[in-house]
Amino acid sequence: MNKNDQGLLLAIGGGEDRKREKLILKKFVYLAGGSLAKIMIVPVASGNGEVLGQEYSEIFKSLGSLQTEVVNITSRKEALHSRWERKLPKVTGVFFTGGDQLKLTSILGGTVFERELKKMFARGMILAGTSAGAAAMSGTMIVEGLSDKPPLQCTVKMAPGLGFLQEVVIDQHFAQRGRVGRLLAAVAQNPFVIGLGLDEDTAVLVNGTGVLKVIGSQTAVVIDGHDSISSNVTETYGHDPLAIIGVTFHVLPSGHGFQLKKRKYLGPTSREVEAVEFS
Amino acid sequence: MNKNDQGLLLAIGGGEDRKREKLILKKFVYLAGGSLAKIMIVPVASGNGEVLGQEYSEIFKSLGSLQTEVVNITSRKEALHSRWERKLPKVTGVFFTGGDQLKLTSILGGTVFERELKKMFARGMILAGTSAGAAAMSGTMIVEGLSDKPPLQCTVKMAPGLGFLQEVVIDQHFAQRGRVGRLLAAVAQNPFVIGLGLDEDTAVLVNGTGVLKVIGSQTAVVIDGHDSISSNVTETYGHDPLAIIGVTFHVLPSGHGFQLKKRKYLGPTSREVEAVEFS
Known about the structure:
Two copies of one chain form a homodimer.
Chain A: E1 9-12, H1 23-32, E2 38-42, H2 49-62, E3 67-70, H3 76-79, H4 84-87, E4 93-96, H5 101-108, H6 112-122, E5 126-130, H7 132-135, E6 140-145, E7 156-160, E8 168-171, H8 180-189, E9 194-198, E10 202-206, E11 211-216, E12 219-224, E13 230-231, E14 244-253, E15 257-259, E16 264-267, H9 271-274
Parallel strand pairs in A: 1-5, 2-3, 2-4, 4-5, 8-9
Antiparallel strand pairs in A: 1-10, 6-7, 9-12, 10-11, 11-15, 12-14, 13-14, 15-16
């Protein structure tokens, strides 16, 4: 359990290496306890949950985790069952697969499963999610939006997320699908959020104090509009391109850190960043 | 001729509307003199110059320009001919088509044609270019670079441009091809330049004082790293993703203005922006 009574988040931008070094998934297994890990794989977002869940199960086993379980919840009824009160406390790490983030929130939102997961997270458990599984972690999440477009008034559809990470909006497949426009539009709508764009095969590890560390082969982009942004988001309609002025942009490769609450770059070598893994 | 003894630049991000309203091309014809315009179309960048040149010629005629000429220079020998000393002074506007910006610079760079074009530009002529024709306008130009990638050390290949616009690097098809990574990399390499990312069917009109006005259906992005950027561009190699911290990002839709020399947003309604067309 970390000092802030909150576990670690590992938000992955999708497309993580599952065949070669598996750097990010290896880190997840290690942080969940290594050979002592008890990992619950939750492929709820996927349309092919059992198969995808088994695939991750094999990977986590190959990386040294002896106990893994695939929990493919397909209805709110299952998610509302009281058995999660007994099952989740035995788990040291939960992994959300990719798919459709609305499936995650519409099936799990406000259920016994979510409540117990949050309890365990507050006690220091690690929660990882890739692609849709990462998007759903934020308080408000991006559901869909146009790629390879400038920020348009209507670019981005949002919905309430699972809320493991507040004041942040996560987007994934970020550079690979040209999503800077839609994340800029999200930040313009409410600059109290930080836009966090995660490239494929790249993750951020975030602790309870708001320090993040980047892991993986590409980058995480931080879009900060808090102090100086101005936009015409309230004066535009539909497919109007937005004017968005004075946004601060940071591109962070592996090893670099950022303090989300203080909106401050921490560099690649600071003790605060190194300590994230030991939170 | 404007007060700064310099003509207008119209840099278009490619893919401009050539079938319907033709807003940007209409503006070019108007600024070149309307029915009195004498337009020289220079399809040097294109592999199919005669056909593309004729296509633009038809469009400019349909928009009211009575005199257009296609000048498809294919060798330095042609570009070095002294006839341009007689031909260019009769022209009120020059239009560079798209294609390969290296063809523009390798054929025209340092020739009689370029020298006479610059003379006319200094006397107030309008120079327009789309896609490669826009890219080649900057002092240093982007030749190629990976799209839909984060900024990598090797992302962007640059070369000396034609130098009509200094201290700026222009990229085109900007949002549509996910090119923010390569433009960020260019700015990180030398933050004295402003990165100017032009979306398709979008142009900037720039006058001799450095004021630009956006025209078209999408946006122009201004990336400014002058005051606060830091990066690890000198400590990385090859396909390493870069750390780029503290870049300021502006997204400008049609009608909005920016003062490039002062690195200052001018808004959508200022007199300075309105005046660009009358420079």
